Amino acid sequence: MMTAALQKRWNDGVGDLLVHRDSSDIVDRFLFHLSDCVEFDQWYTALFHRSEPPERLAFHGIRHGKDDYEEGYYLLDPFYQKFRQDPRRSVHRLDDISMPSRAKSTYFESYLGKWETRDEVGYLVPVGKNKSMHLSISRSNDMPYFETGELVFLESLVNLVGVIFSVDRHRSELDEEMRSARMHDMVDEKVSDFGAGILSAREREIALLQLKGYTARSIAGLTGITEGTAKIHMKNIYRKMGVRSQVDLLVNFFDTLYV
Asked: Which terminal residue of the chain, N or C, has fewer Cβ atoms less than 10 Å from its own Cβ?
């Protein structure tokens, strides 16, 4: 379970992602806020293809550039194999999808071992026919294994990660000159329509504050209601919108924009 301090940091991060949803650095912003909640010292992103080598796009804590991975070791990568087996959106811990003899396998002994990675969690996000974005979050041997609570938190973000990459990919495909006006008009329209026909006027007001990352206490102060009343409204919003949390509500809103 997230502590109050951790929940506050994550809510602030969610609010920042919404404010900067149209920024070219939205993936970097997501990783920054994630690292403020769960520590890791290695990450990379790659675009997996079914019929050609992956494209590794960005790195931290591991070596840049083309190496043996693109030359053939990717075929032994458990995450790439998982993508080939099931292209749906998913999240996995490396140890859970690796062969029991991990330490003795060719991939780990000849390739991954040089990165000194102790623990790794990877997301797979379909972004078109026979393609998937892969985000790896990992800890080197200088850090401990992810704890159970941290793994549960990372796994809970799979849909948000999917939306983040959908947002980023959609943004990059729009013409730069037309993008700003088109996106802001679309966002303004979607914001004004969010929850229409489902939520009451007061619930829509509170839902929009939630999308900006405000807590029940902050919402109470801004709207002139008690914190308890704010929490009741939030529960009703979750029930009516078919979600379970503030993050799920944000994912729901992003889905109306890009997915």
From this structure: N
Q: Which residue has the tokens 């194999």?
A: 81
- The CATH architecture of the domain made up of 39-145 is 2-Layer Sandwich (3.30)
Delimit the CATH 3.40.50.2300 region(s) of the chain. Answer: 176-258
Token pair listed for 77? 């990568």
Where in the chain is CATH 3.30.450.80? 39-145
pLDDT tens-digit readout, 196-236: 889 999 999 999 898 888 899 999 999 999 999 999 999 99
Angle at 33 between CA 27 and CA 39, to 5 degrees: 110
Place of tokens 């041997």: 141
- The structure's pTM equals 0.69
Rg (CA), the chain: 20
Q: Which CATH class for the 176-258 domain?
A: alpha beta
- pLDDT tens figures, 64-88: 445 677 778 888 899 999 999 998 9
Tokens of 49: 């293809």
Q: Which of these, 72, 255, 241, 63, lies nearest to 165 by C-alpha position?
A: 255
* Rounded distance between C-alpha atoms, residue 123 and residue 126, angstroms: 10
